[in-house]
Amino acid sequence: MKLILLGCGTVNLSLLEILLERRLDLSARHGFRPKIVAAVDSRGAAVSPNGLDIEELIRVKKSKGSVAQTGSSGRVGMNALDVISTVDADIVVEAIPTNLKTGEPSLSYVKRAMETGKHVVTANKGPLALTADLLPGLANRKELFFRFSGAVGGGTPILDLAARCSLGDRIVGFQGVFNGTTNYILSELEAGLTFEAALKAAKERGYTETDPLIDIRGLDSASKLVILSNAVFDTRMKLENVKVKGIQGVTRARVAHAATRGRVIRLIASGGNAPAVAPMEIPRESPLAVNSAMNVVTFELEHSGSITISGKGAGGRETAGALLRDILTIHAKLGGFNASRDETAPRVATVV
Ligand SMILES: NC(=O)c1ccc[n+]([C@@H]2O[C@H](COP(=O)([O-])OP(=O)(O)OC[C@H]3O[C@@H](n4cnc5c(N)ncnc54)[C@H](OP(=O)(O)O)[C@@H]3O)[C@@H](O)[C@H]2O)c1
Fold first, then answer.
1. Which domains does the chain have, with CATH numbers?
2. Interhelix angle for 134-142 vs 106-115, to 10°?
3. pLDDT of res. 196
4. In the prediction, which pLDDT does 208 show?
5. Which residues contact 56 (CB under 8 A, 6 or more apart)?
6. Is 224 assigned a catalytic role?
7. Considering only Cβ atoms within 10 Å of each terminal Cβ, which end of the chain, N or C, has fewer?
8. Do residues 75 and 47 lie in contact, with contact meaning Cβ atoms separated by under 8 Å?
9. C-alpha angle with apex 178: 132 to 238, nearest 5 degrees?
């Protein structure tokens, strides 16, 4: 199976490392023998129709800063649109920075990938949260797979669980914590830090988006709420439809006051009739009261009641695991080895 990687940062470099480490296992258990036919970063590309040497690709990216420096395969200045348009591949794996204003350039890359007949796996929230069903619709028309389980919850399979729950029952609502940065800050406020010190600590740990306001003002949570809502309720929601309030007004004193009543403050995303993101006081023993950079979601099912899943919401290896999960699902659906393992996964991941 031929893959094009867009972006060679934290997530896609982790994916390359996992592909290298698990090469034998992936081949034996899944019949999956990927060829990376191109990899692109902000400065250029590496292209080889017979498959790039993954070890060399990782080494060059880490030591020289760009995949474009990869021996005879390197193409300085070659951009993602050129690569997608000219290189033959089965799946485009997209992990470039999120843009929550326009979705670009990722939006154009995903569209071009589909227009040229390639399946797409992405970890990028922006294009999905801003354009409702545009991309799933395009994938459907082109009869392509489009999967994005890494876009919500990092490696925690929130969208996959939602899809399973929706098969035999109906999800009528959900509440969750979808942003590790703000959860970490709120947890640190509980421990006595000021907001500024907690934000600084979150930045030092690499939890924040490039622009931390995207986390703090609740936009990152809201974008995940949109993606999950559209998957669960089959709606056409966009980021602009969510009522969003961030944690910028939450003080150490307010957190301490809540603690005296056995309560904690968490940035809760609520999906249902009135989609909203807002800091809420919840009981310390609530399943939603996760600590540090964890994510959690509780689905309310019509017949089965509440089902909760929690786990790490971000991280290179974790999110790369979600990309690999999506890639293997497509591989299986296309008739790969062990194709019977996931008979329920639909072609387009509006419900993943
Ligand atoms: N990191 C996580 O824990 C996590 C979790 C869930 C979802 N995600 C999502 O996954 C995506 C990638 O995250 P990341 O942490 O891997 O980001 P990152 O470390 O900043 O890496 C981004 C990569 O994209 C490349 N890039 C930037 N603009 C490009 C362009 N126009 N064309 C081609 N490549 C371009 C960068 O090139 P250079 O190397 O040359 O700068 C870099 O290699 C984001 O959308 C993020 O929201 C990340």
1. 2-155+316-342 (3.40.50.720), 158-312 (3.30.360.10)
2. 10
3. 95
4. 84
5. 70, 71
6. yes
7. N
8. yes
9. 15
What end-to-end distance do the CA atoms of the chain give, in Å?
A: 21
- What number does the ligand 1 atom closest to the CA of 41 have? 34
- Look at ligand 1, atom 25, and give the residue with the nearest C-alpha: 7
In the reported structure, the alpha carbon of residue 11 is separated from the centroid of ligand 1 by a whole-number distance in angstroms of 7
Instruction: Enter the tokens of residue 154.
Output: 């990092």
pTM for this model (two decimals): 0.94
Whether a cis peptide bond, with omega within 30° of 0, leads into 346 is no
- Cα(65) to ligand 1 centroid in Å equals 14
Q: Which two tokens stand for residue 302?
A: 């019509």
Give the separation between CA 50 and CA 65, rounded to whole angstroms. Answer: 23
CA dihedral (234, 166, 154, 337) positive or negative: negative
Task: Profile the chain (352 residues) by mean pLDDT over runs of 10 residues.
Answer: 97 97 96 98 98 98 98 97 98 96 98 98 97 96 97 95 95 97 95 94 85 94 98 95 97 96 98 96 98 96 97 92 97 73 44 37
**Residue type present at position 24:** L
